Amino acid sequence: MPGTEHGAAAVTGLGLVTAAGSDAKKTWSEITSAGAPRGVRTMEGLQGLPCDFMYTVEGLDLETELGRGTLLMDRFAQLAVVAARQAVADAGLDPATWDGSRVAVVIGTAHGGLHYYDQQQAVLDRRGPRKVSPKVAPLSVNNNAAGSVCQDLGARGPSLAVSTACASGTDAIGTALGWLRAGRCDIAVAGGAEALRSRLLFASTCRLRALSTRVDDPAAACRPFDVARDGFVVGEGAGMLVLERPEHARARGATVRAHLAGYGSSNDAFSPVASDEEGAGIERALRVALADAGVTATDIGHVNAHGTSTVMNDLVESAALFRVFGDRPLITSTKAMTGHALGAAGGIEAALTALALEEQLVPPTANLDVQDPRVPVEVVARTARPARLECAASSSLGFGGHNAVLVFTRH
Predict the structure, then answer these.
(1) DSSP string, 301-365
(2) Considering its fold, how many domains does the chain have in total?
(3) What is the model's pTM?
(4) What is the pLDDT of residues 96-118, one digit of tens each?
(5) Which residues does the annotation mark as catalytic?
(6) Which residues pair with 397 in a beta bridge?
(7) Which of 406, 237, 244, 377 is CA-nearest to residue 319?
């Protein structure tokens, strides 16, 4: 097994804002409870579409939480700030006393403030240019979350917005790991955020036949690896990690929840919207991440898979997982409880992977009633599975052929 000095970063804080819960503790409890998914509801702005529902964050008053700060933040940025605050507090850090020039922020998002952009386009069409908000430019850009978190925390080190579709959050965390290794920062707040409520994009994704149309039972619509799956369900949320150089964490006596030991990325160079049908790209990213972490395939006891609930994605990914790991690791997809949070998915699932190591518990894949016989790996269903875990991985696949994998170790 690798030591903590094998280029690893210490994970000292976690923040989660999801449809399963408004913080990490609530999200983990809900996801491991094996209950029915909550937070799935029909949306007023999606009436008449083949898919008119999504997973939403509930029980969180953003105006109370953030005050006037909400005025210059799109919803995805607001969720990012809340999750980042949670992660920093969980790490026992105080932004009032740290050296902000040594704190980096890297946040992934696929669509940024597209919903606000859509709203203001409608204003322009109906009421003319004089009624358009001057906030369109700052709120619709993909770096609205990264910039907002920097301002909120006083983080003045390197900062970046990453946009590699549904791999964005994972690539953001991998980028932060590289910066920590290079000595560009001592602390990094990294993850993903998304709050997509765009009617236009929902309509387009329906045309792609990527979304579930199970309108009669939305809570059962997202069913990764299940024989009856028919598409993914959009979710919103944010997942943030505080990563530190191990010596920095030790010097301040921080509690280390896990270690981020490796990162791998690749591109299929195949299609703008479909994964390479052989799964060669995600397989390459998996192997690169293992090598980067200094571990072997047999060390991995659990994989939080991308597992979107689309027919082909689940088959391609599971086949690649089998080629790399065989049928030994316990596979799960937590998207049935959070929805597919797109650019935020990697951040959310990275935090859940760290929690699985800490708790020695693999979450179940909700809504998995009958595993597709073409899926060759062991997918945990119905109830959480206790397991002795030393290493775990989280994988992401995105439009444009982007693949990204993180490897976490317990020690």
Answers:
(1) EEEE----S-HHHHHHHHHHHHHHHTT-SEEE-THHHH-B-GGGHHHHHHHHHHHHHHHTEEPPB
(2) 1
(3) 0.96
(4) 999 999 999 999 999 999 888 88
(5) 166, 306, 340
(6) 403
(7) 377
